[in-house]
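Mods, move this if it's the wrong board.
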Amino acid sequence: MGFFLETLLGGLMAGMLYSLVALGFVLIFKASGVFNFAQGAMVLFAALAMARFAEWFPQWTGIENKIIANLFAFAVAAVIMFIVAWLIERLVLRHLVNQEGATLLMATLGIAYFLDGLGQSIFGSAIYQINIGMPKEPLMAFQDTFPGGILINKEDLYAAAIAATLVALLSLFFQKTTTGRALRAVADDHQAAQSIGIPLNRIWVIVWCVAGIVALVAGMIWGSKLGVQFSLTTVALRALPVVILGGLTSVPGAIIGGLIIGVGEKLSEVYLGPMVGGGIEIWFAYVLALVFLLFRPQGLFGEKIIDRV
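Not the wrong board. Structure tokens:
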């Protein structure tokens, strides 16, 4: 029982990180109908900015305090992501309003490759470290309840707590603020939102900025765990099954979908992997997503589209 709970907790913590990346897809799709394939590139770009500014800050100021350096780097990276979001809306999306979905998809692919190249040109292409103080050593818990206790990765626990906090703040933002309600109105019906005076362009800038902050937090966490390197762009690919499972238009779906994928990956690898030689964790999420595409393409919480003729 103890080993099962250990695996379950590991899956929940991994799933929360998947949910964080999936939120970027959901937020932009809800507000503008654009499936943002540049989300992975945004994660890499934000992580590179934070890693490099945290490294440069002591050189510029002579202050060696890591907490101050990280806070400075996070603030600068957040400003950069705001600027990137504004430029994307102003230079790209504004000129593609009412275009076909394939056109918008190709536009986000172009943005992804541009950000990949720009980030590595400005900040470098080596592997960088982000040290935000998350402990690396494991924690033994519930030793009195289960024989041998439960091994918990402290870094994963802290990362999951950060991701859960951001998700909770975003939920409050959407539910309790005027801007959040405007975002939800735009998501429900663009034309109706415009008819009551909600400016679509401003809303799109805001939602891309929020997605940029989500990408920054995701990049900070994944960069701390894996190092900041080009492979961070593939984090978005791990989040695609989460979006399919939860639904492209559902924030709660991104959270629940991430938890299901995270738990499913860990449990299947531990309990089914030995029967087939391992490797289930690599493809489990995509097979589950394929099943949903076949039998429930809108996902668990997505809206079913009904065409009337």
